[in-house]
Amino acid sequence: MEPLDLIHQPASDPLAENEPCSALGHHCGVAGLFSPDPLNVPERLFYMLFSLQHRGQESCGVAWEEDGRHRGYKDLGMVAPVLGRFLREERRSRLGIGHVRYSTAGGGGLQNAQPIVVDCNKGRLALAHNGNLSNGGRLRKELTAAGSIFQGTADSELVLHLISRSREGTREDFLREALAPLEGAYSLVLMHEGALVAIRDPSGFRPLYVGEKGGATYVASETCALHAVGPMPFREIAPGEVLIVDRAGSRSFFLEPRLPRRACVFELIYFARPDSEVFGESVHGARVRLGEMLAELDEAAGLRADVVVPVPDSGNIAAIGYARRAGLPFDFGLARSHYAGRSFIMPTKDQRELAARLKLHAVPEVVAGKRVVMIDDSLVRGTTSRIIVGLLREAGAKEVHLRLAAPELKWPCYYGIDIPSRDELISNRLDAAGIAREVGADSARFLPVDRLLSGLGHSQGYCSACFDGNHPFRPDVGEKEGQ
Amino acid sequence: MEPLDLIHQPASDPLAENEPCSALGHHCGVAGLFSPDPLNVPERLFYMLFSLQHRGQESCGVAWEEDGRHRGYKDLGMVAPVLGRFLREERRSRLGIGHVRYSTAGGGGLQNAQPIVVDCNKGRLALAHNGNLSNGGRLRKELTAAGSIFQGTADSELVLHLISRSREGTREDFLREALAPLEGAYSLVLMHEGALVAIRDPSGFRPLYVGEKGGATYVASETCALHAVGPMPFREIAPGEVLIVDRAGSRSFFLEPRLPRRACVFELIYFARPDSEVFGESVHGARVRLGEMLAELDEAAGLRADVVVPVPDSGNIAAIGYARRAGLPFDFGLARSHYAGRSFIMPTKDQRELAARLKLHAVPEVVAGKRVVMIDDSLVRGTTSRIIVGLLREAGAKEVHLRLAAPELKWPCYYGIDIPSRDELISNRLDAAGIAREVGADSARFLPVDRLLSGLGHSQGYCSACFDGNHPFRPDVGEKEGQ
Amino acid sequence: MEPLDLIHQPASDPLAENEPCSALGHHCGVAGLFSPDPLNVPERLFYMLFSLQHRGQESCGVAWEEDGRHRGYKDLGMVAPVLGRFLREERRSRLGIGHVRYSTAGGGGLQNAQPIVVDCNKGRLALAHNGNLSNGGRLRKELTAAGSIFQGTADSELVLHLISRSREGTREDFLREALAPLEGAYSLVLMHEGALVAIRDPSGFRPLYVGEKGGATYVASETCALHAVGPMPFREIAPGEVLIVDRAGSRSFFLEPRLPRRACVFELIYFARPDSEVFGESVHGARVRLGEMLAELDEAAGLRADVVVPVPDSGNIAAIGYARRAGLPFDFGLARSHYAGRSFIMPTKDQRELAARLKLHAVPEVVAGKRVVMIDDSLVRGTTSRIIVGLLREAGAKEVHLRLAAPELKWPCYYGIDIPSRDELISNRLDAAGIAREVGADSARFLPVDRLLSGLGHSQGYCSACFDGNHPFRPDVGEKEGQ
Amino acid sequence: MEPLDLIHQPASDPLAENEPCSALGHHCGVAGLFSPDPLNVPERLFYMLFSLQHRGQESCGVAWEEDGRHRGYKDLGMVAPVLGRFLREERRSRLGIGHVRYSTAGGGGLQNAQPIVVDCNKGRLALAHNGNLSNGGRLRKELTAAGSIFQGTADSELVLHLISRSREGTREDFLREALAPLEGAYSLVLMHEGALVAIRDPSGFRPLYVGEKGGATYVASETCALHAVGPMPFREIAPGEVLIVDRAGSRSFFLEPRLPRRACVFELIYFARPDSEVFGESVHGARVRLGEMLAELDEAAGLRADVVVPVPDSGNIAAIGYARRAGLPFDFGLARSHYAGRSFIMPTKDQRELAARLKLHAVPEVVAGKRVVMIDDSLVRGTTSRIIVGLLREAGAKEVHLRLAAPELKWPCYYGIDIPSRDELISNRLDAAGIAREVGADSARFLPVDRLLSGLGHSQGYCSACFDGNHPFRPDVGEKEGQ
Fold this sequence. Notes:
homotetramer, Glutamine Phosphoribosylpyrophosphate, subunit 1, domain 1, 2 domains, 24 strands
């Protein structure tokens, strides 16, 4: 059976927004809150989702309880235009959840936007999901055979069908039954009959945090979304933990089996926001350490340079670490336009060259006559790097050394990150020397996987499958669909 | 369990469009086509749905088969802005269906827009529905108890769940099983694994027609949608008929039990487009006869008048019949602005008075010093009539006699028409004399139900429940939801 | 010196609106008001301009006095979307003017939108203009030579420069001096230092009316715009009259020389709204008479027919007159879609054929087997008529006789009406018999010019140059620009 | 005579865009090009204006020669949405100019958008202007008295009237005559009868550069706009220079009197883009030096700190200079959201607090337990600084020392910069110690004016009137209107 492909034209062109420069697809973000005293819940969710916008720009939505009913609103587009209305409406509620969604070009569309709000025999349910199930295809086939109907193409509907099909009566029992067959990544936030439920898969692929402020409980993918509401104490929701919050208070149970932690290392390298904590680590701190490790390798290799220039803003923090460890000046040799997010259609190849100049500029004052170490967070296809190196040379750089604060990206991810096909990944075609030649740099260097893992806080517990192909779960044949 | 209420802001404000003057809600319209030779199916559906726009302005959508997959597109808004893109895209396909949807103010939203496109164990399915199930609430409860999940509030999802839950293997068998429990109105168009399926409920509440042109088969709620593609021979799909068209050709079977026909008389009075045939009748011809009947009643009562003036455009055709039978001049004593569809927010009562003047104008040349017979198709709340009578008087009319080419509207409809609550219907508060007083007319007259039914082609086979309360099916308690 | 061509993309696509079917360009409309007691002037202007929308759909605007300053707002687009904001804003003012503008495809643009609001040595001035100056080109050259700057291409800037360059000190003197050199059509409304000034050219080409209600004075191109504010006594502003209204009251003076009246007969045939009075005539009444005259000609010629069908809505009223005089039934054999104003891009010829079906439908019930007299107001290129005749034949009409309630259109207009080039006008290529053949009708007939003029109230005082080439003023070489 | 105030609702809300954080109004930017071989001139202007977007976000426009005519397009809004169409249209031209405009809240509107395209006795003229004339009010009064009409409120129309009124015959002569009476700032770009004319006022207040590439000549406010077309040799257009480029080549003449240079020092501190050169200085380099000077002052004062944190992005470069000179680590202790440009309406004070958190985040990893030097470019009202200091303290900063890489802002600018009224400027209310108290910092320090001027390349030739009140030209009474 072929996947559906419901297409939909967004109300506001999602391309017409600020975009980070990188070619790697973000996945999704989730948020939720429960307050014993009624609050303007959709407004609070707006603030949280706005702070998670970097995790998904295709669609967003909120669902909340109001006057004993579930209400919801979602659309293609970014948080500010789609959900901005909730800053101007006063709605009293105790409970709500929200979602921002990234999607691959082909599989997007409004039918996959979340939260999904349904009626079923367990009552009123709403769900928001970050992650991807590696056995989603098989489960979908089984459920369909048993009479379930799927309106979208995303894994998240699966969870609702499994809950609805469970014969168990209590919330803990039917959740245990429904979640047992799932393999892969799922950080879930649910509304169910007056309760907020937050679930993190036993491998802990994706982050999930909980905090408290003024008697209310807030759940979000990253701590930056908690800060958006205000300063509050927080903790990581543990791998396999199911946290339930309602008027009776808050309690947790744990899913079996308790698997080894497999936190996605790419969250630290690239996805998460620098002011967040994920997996118990400061994202900023981790990125500084990645830059330091790179500098140590270059020092050992005897590289001589004059200035460290980050690719803004993705390479900023690693460049701080590199410059500090190498004892070299850090400087803004590349400037990003404040207005370049506003995209425009570029029909010809010529125009694409010109467009690149509009987004990024080299600063002659910083790089002319210098040996430049140019730092970025990771390398996907290498096309942008080639243009940037060209800008630096045009502005007079004497040497350009490309440094990536991550290992070579070579493998697909089955747990929620949208990585281009193996053919497109430059590191599957070329080694570092070949890459340097292709992008026009004097040299190129990556961070080896073992160095990356040992350099982070724990040497264990990370999934680095996209770098080393060591996948914790193998998908069913033909599976790959990002959440 | 409370109904969900997923709200959604439309891409284009549906209010900012042409609106017919009446206060009665239209319901929905469906269309479909199968062609053995590939055509630009979405483009053809555009023409058909555009011609059915009067049946629903809230949302619209199409689904079609392309490269062996089901594709779809739907949004809140009118056909031209939402589906206009398909006039500019070349898509080759053999099969497609479409829908225009009207919805009550509260129950609208994108989650109820159609076609619904799903994957299930019967394969790829897409459905568009016109009508309303009077036992929808009970069926929904039963299906939910058995594990089905509902994402929207409309009846149409029910049909898909019943199909998916059937254990029958052949298309005819599972359709028979799935449709058997349905009570009420359903004109359905489905795509199923390469076949177009058109279904009309055994009571035949809503119209459904099929035509052929150039080897292709076209299905639509009204014949005007067939004409939009070009002149073609057509026939009514019979009550209880299930028509299947695919590469093997076209064949029908019939649902049991064969109930007496209950065609909605309001389709002839108000809903259908005058150039359409529905229920085997010319809509224009039926409306002329309604006007003639009114004139006969007035003649018997000895009314003396000078000119017959329709409320444009809803009273136009009945006024032709009235003037012809009464031997009085027909004239355009009221003119409608060509630009008044574009609505504007009117916050104050003062402005509402002024706004009425923008939409409709009385022509002194026609009515000054005259005894005016003012014809409209039906009377709901009476508020607009009061304003129009005032305009005529202000332009110098000596007498104004309000004539309605329909009986008194008094009861709810459970089969797909959105009628205001009984309290709001003026005919539940006042008799004709009282209505004349309230709207400022010298007299008022309705067409009696028995006269209406005997005056139409068949004296039997019409549902006139909204006038006489004689409902063929009673709903479950609390049921009322329009399609 | 080539004309400028400043292009501008409208905020709202003016094509995406209701459009009358005809191919003749409307010109412009003006409105103004003065009230000794402050009113919400922009709101009142909204109502007046909305009622003048048929006179111009390209752009619209208002200017008013507020707190001793001139304020203004204008944009490309229709009255409701562009000026709708003024229904929601409370602004107190004594004085304001407004404008709706039609423009030819090439010469449009926001730089020509009105009112024009300026500072000059006569103080604060704002102007709105309906008409066209036949000596505009020469005056522009003279003014430019003397140092004047033109930002737009329309004649209206001329009037402001002439006012500014006058050495006369009093308002009456500088207006007399500034207006003296003008030839052609100008109905002007000005705000000048607290006064409303309404001016009609000595030939009286374009209509201009004044009315009083509640102490306030309202000026507008047609009486329908006065009715939009409420019932009020009104009178025609005379050819050559300059009416000044301010806190000191209202007084008039007259421009010299007093030329013979040359009222545009096309206002009665086509432009003005049927519920208006223009040139002292009821527009509805005049159109009924045109239809009667046509019927008399056909009677004399012995035409036999079964039904009179108007092309909606342009032929509606003449068809009433024709049917009445001919003793034939009037019926709606053609129906216009209520939703077809919403235009869509039609790239291929095939689609254009299909699009015509979306806008207009023939009703078989009315025309099948009948000899049809099809009435329209005028014939320009003949392309639409060919399609409509085809629709009638397809619906079964036995004969189709095309009747036009106007003479053959053959000449350009230099006074504000946008008529296609002589080559495009079908009556310059073919006689009535040839036209009947080209559009597929059994016969065609126009109203002769002398019959038209003698049949109207006065046999004198109309400009019929577009029919007979008898132009009151000849333009400078190369002049033609509509207002 | 009161100034006009034509209001206009922009097609796209200019607020719904990325905004730099500062409260100081940018002014305008100009661009132009002449090429002997036809190019897609509007496309090239798009690239140049996009790179000047930081100089004005209210409106933008282009004008160009095409087929011997002047064509133009302008609207309220940003370059990408308003002018993006020119990336998709192929237009061949030799000559064009463009403009981006900033405007104060009150005086904006489409009637002031540029280029202004006119017909006059010198032929076809189009003009774009950056700057402000300090004697604009007096000149306007004189010209009005002489019969000139003003449609907008900006100074730029003045220049066109002066050109039109000149009796001189040659371009050089009438330009000399027209420009002679102007006082204040004007960098002008004109199209005149096939020639590109670039003019910089004798004081050289605003920058203006010219470059050549592929035979074509490009003119722009900053060199970054030249780079946007590609690398090319360039030079500063000298104060008082009038550069003319046409098919005969390029030549210059100079305006009298030759005044001392008064280059606006705020261009270096804040307005110009860091990768630009203006006034012969690298903007990046100048800002690094400003930071170094601050560090020297702090060193002399014995300040002890742990980390240097810029307010992103306005303080970035000065912070590099400070950290380098002070020997302290530079780090990103404040992060800016990539999505916060998209603004939203914040009706309540509570929400304003929350909104600030959405735009800027403090990074605990960087600042917790640290003595932080927080660097920004300048201080206007101080409200944002108070919030930022609060975020740093909340994230654990032990001390916060506010450092501004500019002197105290105290005076108005009459030459094109929009500075809030003197009352609003915090430095007119408080000294550094008072400011530190008000924003919650441990200390505050500005750069003294003499240090600023001596520290820049030349110690002479800058206008620093906004800091020291030493205005080169005094305006006429009541004058202040930004370009």
